[in-house]
């Protein structure tokens, strides 16, 4: 079973906590035991698992600015968003999470994020696929 979630972003780079929406989709799937694949079908977005606590989102922004700074990237000759493509390629567009007792089996502090890298965008789709054990 697959469900599509849609989010809007308001900034060039933005972390959106999508844990509740993903968990709701798991509940609607009826899968009690299995895996959940969360996938962003975009070349300029990524999926992260981490803690949603003070400073984390700002730290991700700082890391991205330092790790992949704006510059004279070859891809910018095409559409001027090379840093978004590079960050998405290295961070990754998917995560696989176990489903146990009908719920995402996340760690105590783990939450699921959509990382917008080339916003703002009105329709960032997240494909959530459930595989029963």
From TrEMBL:
InterPro entries with a match to the protein in the record: UPF0047_YjbQ-like, YjbQ-like_sf
Pfam families linked to this entry: YjbQ
SUPFAM superfamilies for this protein: YjbQ-like
PANTHER family per UniProt: UNCHARACTERIZED PROTEIN YJBQ-RELATED, UPF0047 PROTEIN C4A8.02C
Family per similarity comment: Belongs to the UPF0047 family.
UniProt xrefs under NCBIfam families: TIGR00149_YjbQ
Protein name per Swiss-Prot or TrEMBL: Secondary thiamine-phosphate synthase enzyme
């Amino acid at each position: 079973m697959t469900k599509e979630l849609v989010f809007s972003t308001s900034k060039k780079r933005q972390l959106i906590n999508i844990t509740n929406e993903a968990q709701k989709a798991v509940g609607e799937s009826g899968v009690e035991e299995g895996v959940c694949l969360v996938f962003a079908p975009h070349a300029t977005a990524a999926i992260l698992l981490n803690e949603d606590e003070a400073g984390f989102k700002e730290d991700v922004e700082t890391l991205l600015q330092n790790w992949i700074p704006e510059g004279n990237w070859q891809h910018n000759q095409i559409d001027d968003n090379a840093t978004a493509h590079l960050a998405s390629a290295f961070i990754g567009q998917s995560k696989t999470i176990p489903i146990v007792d009908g719920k995402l089996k996340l760690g105590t502090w783990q939450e699921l994020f959509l990382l917008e890298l080339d916003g703002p965008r009105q329709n960032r789709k997240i494909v959530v696929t459930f595989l029963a054990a």
